[in-house]
Amino acid sequence: MQIDIIQEINKYIVVYGMDILTSIAVLVVGIYLSRKLRKITRKFLEKAGIDLSLVGFISQLVYILGIVFVGVTVLNKLGMPTTSFVTVLGAAGFAVGLALQGSLSNFASGVLILVFKPFRVKDVIQTSDILGAVEEIQIFNTILRTFDNKTIIIPNSKLTSDKIINYTLQDKRRIDFEFGVSYDSDIVKVKNVIREIFDKDERILKDPMPIIGVLEFADSCIKIVARPWVITENYWPVYFDVMEKVKYEFDKNDIVIPYPQRVIHLRNDEKI
Fold first, then answer.
1. What is the pTM of this model?
2. Is the same domain home to 6 and 71?
3. Within a domain: 265
4. Alpha helices in the chain (DSSP H)
5. What 3-state class would DSSP assign to 211?
6. How many Å is the maximal CA-CA distance in the chain?
7. Is residue 47 in some structural domain?
8. Which end of the chain is more exposed for a tag (fewer CB within 10 A), N or C?
9. Pair 212, 225: CB distance under 8 Å
10. How many domains does the chain fold into?
């Protein structure tokens, strides 16, 4: 019995040996060329000025289609009827599709992201629990890089079903400052000091004009709100500089930033 099986295998190798070797060569070369084609497609799209969001998506799609083409070619070379294979592949694809609904959902979500563009590559976005810059939009996932240099891979379906805050979509942003000053402070003087800081900083826009006013009479201080507008890329540099300058100018003008205070009354009850 074993001898018969070995003989059949030998016959198969003799008859189809060259086809098997050719198919292996086609498979190896095909995978290599598919990868090369992906790189060429990426470079071509980048030189053509195509939106970076589409570059990664299309290049990866080209790679997958190349692999499918190579697989069909190999099967055809081995003598398998590709027509019946396509039918079987369709049935198998339906079954796999049911099993991989999440992946199909991610693919559909990736298409929606590219069509409606809620964010693009290099945008800074925030989900419910993640903040980072978009590095690449792939077929099934979107890759973000956080500001402490972590790479985070998020399924596309999560990004289309969750709330997304895009910090860089608009060209202008408002910075909301709150400063607490003592109740002994001259409100007009405080506002003038803040306004002077804003006037000297060329990065702060004149239109819209900054808003400065009293926000609240808190327990231990008067809260002053200041809301200047800046170009989006200047948001954090201006924020840090203004915070430092306000402390310096308040000290220079004897404007007190009070500590939280509590008044405690002690009662000494004596028994008669």
1. 0.62
2. yes
3. no
4. 2-47, 52-77, 82-99, 101-116, 156-161, 187-200, 235-252
5. strand
6. 119
7. yes
8. C
9. yes
10. 3
Residue 153 CA to residue 146 CA, distance in Å, equals 11
- Domain assignment present for residue 237? The answer is yes
Task: Please indicate, yes or no, whether residues 25 and 64 belong to a single structural domain of this protein.
Answer: yes
Q: Which residues span the domain enclosing 129?
A: 118-166
Q: Which tokens belong to 248?
A: 């310096």
pLDDT at 162: 87
Spatial distance between the Cα atoms of 143 and 136, rounded to a whole number of angstroms: 5
Coil, helix or strand at residue 108: helix
The pair phi, psi for residue 154, each rounded to 5°, is -115, 130
pLDDT tens-digit readout, 131-185: 999 998 888 899 999 999 999 999 999 998 888 999 999 999 999 999 999 999 9
Q: Is the CA virtual torsion 240, 244, 245, 247 positive or negative?
A: positive
Q: Is position 45 within any domain?
A: yes
Verify that 14 and 95 share a domain, yes or no.
Answer: yes
Per the DSSP assignment, residues forming a β-bridge with 131 are 126
